[in-house]
Here is the input.
Amino acid sequence: MGIDSGGGGTPRGERMNTLIPSINALARRIGREVNLMEVCGTHTMTAFRSGLRQLLPRNVRLISGPGCPVCVTDTNYLDAAISLCRRPDVLVATFGDLLRVPGSESSLENERAAGADIRVVYSPTDAVALARENPDRKIVFLGVGFETTAPTVAASIVAASAAGLQNYFVLAAHKTMPHAMAALLQDQQIRIDGFICPGNVTVITGAAIYRFICEQYRIPCVVTGFEPVDMLKATAMLLTQIADGRAEVEIEYSRSVTDRGNAIAQKLLAEVFVECDAGWRGLGMIPRSGLTIRAKYAAFDAVPALGVQFEPAQPHPGCRCGDVLRGLITPPDCKLFGTACTPTNPFGPCMVSSEGTCAAYFKYERRRAA
Here is the structure.
């Protein structure tokens, strides 16, 4: 399958008033309902914030998939992190989005209010600095994220190793996107006609990682930037492929993405991490969709080094975040949405994260509908 730039050098190079008529014409040419899934939380926020869905023809539907790394993280990971922060010699460092995500019985925010030492950091490098500054404490960084975040976590482990730090650990729950996309295509409950692929992830991995989706499943993929016009151009490119009966990987975001990606970041990932099976909220266990720390750096892996246990856990019984992440339902289809579950009282991560579909729908779509 070919990988084409699609002429997407800059979002300013395309005008909505030329893209919308083109999309409408393609939709009429196809003549059936088309489901296009974005698998990036930033794309989800862009689509809701800009009202992009309202600009599309009735038979072209954008579906939000598992593009929010906090949202797809299993409840048992949160429970393990909460268990760690209750240890008196442990300081937990985390990105802010994880604080309010509910575990089985508590959250990191509640634990911090109860006295646990939990620090919000902006980079894993900050966590390494905390390890240097607190030699008598065990610093555990919560490593959650896709291929975009994982290289920075890998770099922190290499830096800690080079500095001889013995009190820096990572509780890793990194996910990789392509095999999750394949798992969605194997789900008989949903139909996906094309993928809007994440530009930030693909800067690291290169666009070639999606080629097997096109070859094995005959589903077109377009790697896209983050402006509304980027997403409109990607929609037009996907509809063109569908109308022509093609399934290829194309790059709309050619100003940043290449076929091969960032070789330095890939080398760093391969140095520190190895592929593993991973549990995804809503999707279950997906083979080869996660990254675990190599034996070479086991001294920095919180699981063996600190004896972390992942116990069976269940999210709130009424929460349907898993179905939202699969694209099976939209947030209003969940009985808790907007009533019991709100941004100030979240029952699931999709309402917590800044990239969560429920949070985006609550903030933008409810107001628009009203």
About this structure: The chain has two domains: 1-320, 321-364.
